[in-house]
Amino acid sequence: ATFVLIKFILFDKLCNCLIVVCRSDLKAMRMSIARLIAILVVLIICVIGIQARDLVWKGSECNTNFHNNANWDGAVPINNPNKPAETVFFGPTLAGEEWDPVYSRATEGTYEMHRLVFADNGVLELDSDGAEFVFYENDATEGEALFTAGQGYSRACDFRCHENFETPEGASVEDPPCSQDTAVFPTDSTYKIYMRGFNPLGGIDIAGNSYVLDDQRLDLPTYHFSPNPNKLEVFFRGTDGSSLNNLCKDAGVFDLDAGECVCFTSCPSADQEREQNERLREIAKAIAEENLRIFLATPVTKTITYTFLYRFLLNRLDRDFVYHAFRTLFFSDENVELLFSTISQSLGNDIKNMTFHGVDFNHVDGQFTIEATVTAPNAIMQNFPDNTLVGSFGASIPSIDRPLAYHTWKSASTLAFDLASDVCLEEQNRLYQLCDDLTPMACNIVRSIADISDPTRILDNVDLILPQLEVYLNLTDALVTTTTTTTTTTSTTTTSTTTTPNATTTVPGTTPGAPTTPGAPTTAPVGGETTPDGPTPNMPGSTDVPPTSDMPAPTSEDETTTTTTTTTTTTTT
Question: DSSP E strands: which ranges in 365-522?
């Protein structure tokens, strides 16, 4: 069997259909019905969707053939029924006249003239199979022949006019070649084709040479098109068609629903013109809406720079607390990372599809500066003019109509006070515990004042009370013990008469020689006491009286006694 590869070229892709054809006896193939059906299915799949066309340029009314008498004005250089032309102008008749260079071919035949005048540019190709140029004496010629083909626009030479194309079978078409089609120019003629404006094509075939890539545009024959290839707006579909589709969108000739470029004829009938205009409006509207959607969805990145001063905070809060709060915030990389996360979350909750990145903080006492970048779709970023992306805030906090600055400050201040509050609460608990250990009753009163006086301002209350509490505790630590002694003296005078025959005993504090009263008790000296076992030692400062065993019993007589009592009181504070 012989294998034949049949390749169908479809749109922007190749559908390779491998058909097994056996050129031997059909019986030898032993091909089942199922196999035949499978091959037919493959063929149908390949054929379905074939929309690419080969459209052939008619060329009967638009060519630059040198031998076409319709391309001459005045005399003609070939098949002239009169005398040969004296002068054949393949260019302007006078120097400096406007001339559009052309590419022309002289096929087999005899071309007669006295002289041939060429332009400064252009191409005249002589057919190698017998193109003959014969030059006569001047008196044997008459008249001038002026080449007019390719000089100015004509409808018959308009690439966008569908009437100038036909199918390979000679059928007429309703629209010109477009992004999936190949424009075929037969090899028997030369042309000057006007391709004004934007022209999306699948390819161009000229004299058997194919051009299907944008890089091949400059390889097109010189003077075959107007404008010249270096200025020609011809774009080829290429391998995938995506680039061409984007160009068609930019040119406003892309059908979003069909997913393909659209080409309109430049020579429509009245009905065609109405249909084209309506479709053009629909396409333009759809493309505009799509472009707007893409534009609004396109991410845009901008830089923000804000400086925040604490002046407005210091009017309401303690200076040391404010400074301490922001020092705590920027104290560690961990806290700064937490701040970045907090700002990102706050922005994300309020402004959807906005990301916050590239952050740099600069903090000194009294202020901090943030530099960062934000990225969001154009639709969102348009709400933030450049003048709202920079600013310094000192007298008041940012308002909500400056959301980027507002969320930055809100996140930073909230987190700073939260971190500082955590430290304060730890210190508060420590002091409460210390207070409980020392003076629980007083501390309970302090805590009650702090917690109950204004529950919404507990920290402020604590901030006011703690310094007083600390002063109180410091005073407690400095307590001393003092002793105060008070002495009270009482004097009593007693007069009596005591008769003693042999001796007189004088008690300290009495008058020597004074008589005593018989049978009267003897007053014990202060500091001593009589006990059954004998007298106890006297207290310091007292006078010991030794016992006298042979002392006679006192006799009664008049005696005066003075008693002094000292009381000592000690008070400890």
Answer: 367-377, 390-393, 483-497
